[in-house]
């Protein structure tokens, strides 16, 4: 095709005779402008609804406030108050440990599921169907999927009924609902897909000849998993990790629904400050959270090159 | 006769794990669908006290559960608007990135940042910004923008994937045959990427329809459906909650099903047209030889 094109316009790129210089020039100018017009709606949306709002959060985090209004200023009181409060540190510690636990569980489950789909399901059609089966819940309401745990985990829920029935416990377990357990369970339930998809994607790009070569060279299944598949899946794992950590670190809905208001998270702390109209306090907390999240993402991108996955 | 290679032993435990995972994904939702048909005296857990549509009926009574009908309507409208904007903006953005422009990497990193900045922060920022400007937040303005910050990066990344595999020969052929840039996009590019645009639309609608964290501070005085549901989780203790869950999940499944059907239709059409396109491309070298 390229050669056809070149033969039409001549070897030295001379313009075809039928086009006048003027029309070519206007054509070229319109061409140069086109991509800017095309990107404008998307770029403008991100500018107005992402960049400016975050700038507003950063600005307000230095403002003063009283019970009724915001007072433009440049003070560090909000950060100071935030960082000297032991509750802040406890909450961050709680959020980070829950995020870590969720990460470990979603990684283990997500990797196993992706591995099964990529290397053990042989027909392309089945692979697509099973992959879709995993992704459909992603397109349904998260809050409804949280609520759906109530009949399982409640005091009179299915799990307690079953355990009582089989005589494994005498009293219904109280910790199932409204606890850290419930929160992490919901995270794993809602977000494991964010691990499955990028890891599966990475695995599908692995050249199957590499696995054959490993087998021919005498590698056991476990060895080729450890020395071939896992290293080549790292970018997918990194992308999944970024998703999980950023979602869990910034979550307040799951925590408040699943813990019944009995557990805290950083974002919930912000939401509570907002409801007390302490906007600058919430903004300072938001800036700290954003710095931590971006720091984690930056570190991950340094360790693993994810660009080739995009 | 080539016999299929025997499955490795690891297949069976992995298959069992996968089945458990799928049960884990769908089990709870299935349970609340079942429980939403509780009799009028039924509670939030098993056993079922009869079977009825009682809770679905009370869902539509205004006083019972707040403004279900209104929030449902708003969420559908908002979802449709977000879907349209996501498809159009992502498609145009994809075209722009393909051509290249100054500042492309800035826009790319912005899109990625939009994905990884915690949602609550985006909502908080938009709420604060509107407050500082003295504007009222509303579901059709500020929440609309907030949702786009979540759906556009997905749309753009899908467009990248599409255009990475897109054969430029089709466009060159169109140009060589005298098509204007607009005609090339309208009659060549658009039909070829149509199935992917349906996928982007599915992301756009469902992510908006279920969005909560970005909406909380940007929706203004009228709730969207997820906000309404969230409010209900704290003060409703009857199976009407499950009825609501069943209805919204039903809508989601309907949308997914419609999108998949449309996708298959578009793929089918593309395959037919693609066949024509390929044969036209095959003819090109013959022309040169003559």
Please summarize what this structure is.
The complex is a heterodimer of chains A (310) and B (290). Chain A is an all-alpha fold.
Write a structural description.
- The complex is a heterodimer of chains A (310) and B (290).
- Chain A has 15 helices and two strands.
- By secondary structure, chain A is an all-alpha fold.
- Chain A has two domains: 48 residues; 225 residues, MetI-like fold.
- In chain A, strands 1-2 form a two-stranded antiparallel ribbon.
- In chain A, a hairpin with a 4-residue loop joins strand 1 and strand 2.
- Chain B is mainly alpha-helical and 290 residues long.
- Chain B has a single domain, classed as Orthogonal Bundle (MetI-like fold).
- Helices cover 73% and strands 0% of the residues of chain B.
- Chain B is built from ten helices and no strands.
- The longest helix of chain B is centred in the C-terminal third of the chain and has 50 residues.
- At the A-B interface, helix 1, helix 2, helix 4, helix 5 and helix 6 of A face helix 1, helix 3, helix 4, helix 5 and helix 6 of B.
Protein traits:
heterodimer; A: 310 residues; mainly alpha; MetI-like fold; 2 domains; two-stranded antiparallel ribbon; 15 helices; 2 strands; globular; disordered N terminus; B: 290 residues; 10 helices
Alpha-carbon distance between the two ends of chain B: 48 Å
Query: Uncertain runs of chain A with pLDDT below 50, 5 residues or more?
Result: 1-22
Based on Cα principal axes, name the global outline of chain B.
Answer: globular
Would you list the SSEs of chain A in sequence order as H and E? HHEEHHHHHHHHHHHHH
Just give the CATH class of the largest domain in chain A: Mainly Alpha
What name does the CATH topology of chain B carry?
MetI-like fold
């Amino acid at each position: 095709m390229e050669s056809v094109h070149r033969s039409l316009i001549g070897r030295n790129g001379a313009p075809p005779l039928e086009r006048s210089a003027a029309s070519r020039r206007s054509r070229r100018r319109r061409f140069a402008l086109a991509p800017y017009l095309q990107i404008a709606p998307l770029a403008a949306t991100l500018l107005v609804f992402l960049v400016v709002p975050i700038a507003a959060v950063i600005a307000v985090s230095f403002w003063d406030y009283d019970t009724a209004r915001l007072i433009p200023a440049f003070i560090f009181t909000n950060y100071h108050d935030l960082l000297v409060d032991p509750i802040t540190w406890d909450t961050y510690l709680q959020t980070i440990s829950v995020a870590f636990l969720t990460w470990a569980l979603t990684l283990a489950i997500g990797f196993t599921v992706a591995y099964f789909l990529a290397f053990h399901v042989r027909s392309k059609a089945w692979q697509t169907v099973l992959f879709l089966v995993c992704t459909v819940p992603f397109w349904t309401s998260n809050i409804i999927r949280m609520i759906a745990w109530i009949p399982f985990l409640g005091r009179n829920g299915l799990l307690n009924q079953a355990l009582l029935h089989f005589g494994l416990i005498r009293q219904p377990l109280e910790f199932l609902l409204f606890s850290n357990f419930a929160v992490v369970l919901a995270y794993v339930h809602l977000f494991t897909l964010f691990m499955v998809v990028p890891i599966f994607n990475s695995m599908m790009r692995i050249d199957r000849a590499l696995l054959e070569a490993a087998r021919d060279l005498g590698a056991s299944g476990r060895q080729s998993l450890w020395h071939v598949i896992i290293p080549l899946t790292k970018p997918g794992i990194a992308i999944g990790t970024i998703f999980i950590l950023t979602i869990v670190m910034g979550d307040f809905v799951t925590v408040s629904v699943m813990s019944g208001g009995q557990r805290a998270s950083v974002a919930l702390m912000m939401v509570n400050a907002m409801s007390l109209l302490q906007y600058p306090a919430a903004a300072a907390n938001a800036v700290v959270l954003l710095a931590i999240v971006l720091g984690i993402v930056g570190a991950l991108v340094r360790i693993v090159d994810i660009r080739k996955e995009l | 006769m080539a016999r299929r290679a025997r499955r490795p032993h690891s297949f069976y435990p992995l298959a069992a794990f996968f089945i458990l995972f799928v049960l884990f994904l769908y089990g709870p939702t299935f349970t609340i669908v079942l429980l939403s048909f509780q009799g009028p005296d039924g509670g939030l857990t098993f056993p079922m006290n009869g079977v009825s549509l009682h809770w679905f009926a009370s869902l539509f009574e205004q006083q019972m559960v707040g403004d279900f009908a209104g929030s449902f309507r708003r969420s559908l409208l908002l979802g449709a608007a977000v879907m349209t904007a996501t498809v159009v903006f992502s498609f145009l953005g994809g075209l722009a990135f393909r051509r290249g422009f100054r500042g492309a990497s800035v826009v790319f990193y912005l899109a990625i940042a939009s994905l990884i900045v915690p949602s609550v922060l985006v909502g908080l920022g938009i709420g604060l910004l509107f407050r500082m400007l003295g504007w009222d937040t509303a579901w059709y303005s500020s929440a609309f923008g907030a949702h786009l910050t979540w759906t556009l990066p997905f749309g753009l990344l899908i467009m990248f994937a599409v255009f990475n595999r897109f054969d430029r020969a089709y466009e060159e052929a169109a140009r060589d045959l005298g098509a204007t840039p607009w005609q090339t996009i309208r009659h060549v590019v658009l039909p070829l990427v149509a199935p992917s645009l349906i996928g982007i639309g599915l992301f756009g609608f469902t992510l908006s329809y279920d969005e909560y964290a970005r909406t909380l501070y940007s929706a203004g005085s009228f709730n969207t459906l997820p906000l309404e549901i969230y409010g209900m989780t704290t003060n409703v203790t009857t199976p009407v909650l499950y009825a609501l869950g069943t209805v919204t999940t039903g809508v989601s499944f309907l949308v997914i099903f419609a999108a998949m059907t449309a996708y298959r239709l578009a793929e089918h059409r593309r395959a037919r047209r693609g066949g024509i396109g390929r044969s036209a491309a095959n003819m090109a070298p013959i022309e040169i030889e003559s």
